[in-house]
Design a protein that fits this description.
The chain has 78 residues and is mainly β. It has strands at residues 5-17, 20-31, 35-46, 51-62, 65-76.
Length: 78
């Protein structure tokens, strides 16, 4: 498969304090035509017993340049 991923490695962690969790993730992907480093920093707040909000920043560096994406995740438990 042309352009497929040859190697991938990633690691992350989470620290929880009361109703807030802080997390990070770093990864590296080696494709046949390029390579990419990426990382995410996030925190997660338990607003209620059923609702949590998780903003995050995702940073990407690959052969085409540097990129960033902001995310806002919301969880609801039935």
């Amino acid at each position: 498969m042309e352009g497929g991923c040859r190697n991938y490695a990633g690691a992350g962690g989470v620290v929880k304090y009361d109703k807030v969790s802080f997390g990070f993730f770093l990864d590296y992907a080696d494709y046949t035509t390029a390579h990419e480093w990426a990382g995410e920093v996030t925190c997660r707040w338990a607003c209620t017993s059923r609702v949590t909000v998780q903003p995050a920043i995702h940073l990407i560096r690959n052969s085409n340049g540097n990129y960033a994406a902001g995310l806002l995740r919301m969880y609801y438990v039935w």
